[in-house]
Design a protein that fits this description.
Helix content: 25-40%
Order of helices and strands: HHEEHEEEHEHEHEHEHHEEEHEHH
Number of domains: 1
Number of strands: 13
Strand content: 5-15%
Strand order of the largest sheet: 1-2-13-10-9-8-7-6-3-4-5
Distance between the termini: 20 Å
């Protein structure tokens, strides 16, 4: 059903007021899903109009959008979207800063340790000397990524394992907020064989010291990029320091669509939110700003590649990974991080007179107020 915005607000307000941990009955669920569909369709249409304005827009096998030199497309992203995915390697459970968009916001001091001398690889626990065993018994991944929280807090522990995967010819990339990077540890990462370093520039508010670290990293590491959630704060600060950032020689910029979980949602309550394919929930402005930035990059001929790391990209990423793992047709683990989904967070977008549905129809019989029984 193509529920009207008025009816959507009426029903979602009612459901939100009486929502508990029990799932709604089927007819009520149909209405909620109809509302999600109407919002998502309108958001997709807005984004499609913005994308159509980007000169030279490119598509990677229908899985993601980008502008710029193909040779600068992140090898880690290629592995993620077309290879065997990215095997996440986890070690450091601490961070030296706190970002409002962080998935662990408010609980950074409660993250469980991986264990002394241990690394979490593919969900299991291993020591560095187990890497050869993994490579001799498991299918060799096209890429691995070092995640979980700020590796540079103990970066010296990473050099031996990076050397192991480098010797095996596996592409490796590592994420950092960049505030602890310096010539010594960046050079050591390059010597160990790290292929790609990604800076979360939004974490520091585009700090000058981090921009300088990006330029420094280019001396020692083959591919250096920026990967950061697109927020209004980042959009503004990036444009203020655009020339300084581009002068670093950065190869690629991944502007990620900000998605919310139970930890960081509190920082974005009241924003216009949508849910993508019943999975990630995001403010609608995040991808809009990315597409506007990509248009600017294309029109101004930025020297780096700019990638739209959207919810749709992550949706495609998971489908690719499941297929490479031998999953059945349509197998995916892409899902919402809220259980149940808090319906009240969608009221602001339904109350916004500037946001319109594409097409509306009257509710069918049996779905109108007074016709449904809980």
């Amino acid at each position: 059903m193509k529920i009207s915005k008025k009816d959507a607000l009426t029903w979602m307000s009612f459901f939100a007021e009486y929502q508990d941990d029990q799932p709604l009955p089927p007819r009520q669920q149909e209405i909620v899903y109809a509302v999600f569909s109407q919002i998502e369709s309108a958001v997709d249409a807005r984004n499609a109009r913005l994308a159509a304005e980007i000169p030279g827009l490119k598509f990677l096998m229908g899985r993601t959008l980008y502008v710029g030199d193909d040779a600068k497309f992140s090898r880690g992203c290629t592995s993620c979207l077309t290879g065997t995915g990215l095997t996440a390697i986890r070690k450091t459970n601490k961070c030296n800063i706190q970002c409002k968009f962080c998935y662990n916001y408010g609980e950074l001091d409660q993250q469980p340790p991986i264990g002394e001398g241990m690394w979490e690889i593919g969900g299991g626990k291993y020591r560095v000397e187990d890497v050869e065993l993994l490579l001799s018994t498991c299918k060799k991944p096209t890429g691995v990524s070092y995640v979980y929280l700020e590796p540079f807090m103990e970066i010296e522990k990473y050099y031996p394992i990076i050397e192991k995967f480098h010797a095996a010819g596996i592409h490796q990339h590592l994420y950092t907020n960049g505030t602890l990077a310096n010539a010594e540890n960046l050079q050591a990462l390059g010597r160990a064989g790290l292929d790609e370093l990604r800076f979360n520039l939004g974490a520091s508010g585009c700090a000058d010291s981090v921009i300088e670290a990006i330029a420094l990293a280019k001396k020692y590491i083959s591919y250096v990029g920026i990967e950061t959630p697109m927020t209004p704060e980042l959009y503004q600060r990036f444009l203020q320091k655009k020339e300084q950032i581009l002068a670093t020689g950065v190869d690629f910029i991944n502007f990620a669509e900000l998605h919310l979980n139970p930890n960081n949602l509190c920082n974005y309550l009241g924003e216009n939110l949508y849910i993508c394919r019943h999975g990630y929930i995001s403010p609608i402005w995040s991808r809009e700003m990315t597409l506007k930035m990509m248009r600017r990059a294309a029109e101004e001929h930025w020297p780096c590649l700019v990638h739209d790391c959207s919810n749709h990209t992550k949706f495609a990423r998971d489908l690719n990974l499941r297929a490479k793992e031998g999953g059945w047709f349509g197998a995916t683990s892409y899902a919402c991080e809220f259980d149940p989904i808090p319906l009240e967070i969608f009221l602001p977008i339904l109350q916004d007179d500037t946001f319109q549905f594409l097409e509306e129809e009257p509710l069918p019989e049996g779905y109108r107020p007074g016709e449904m029984v809980f």
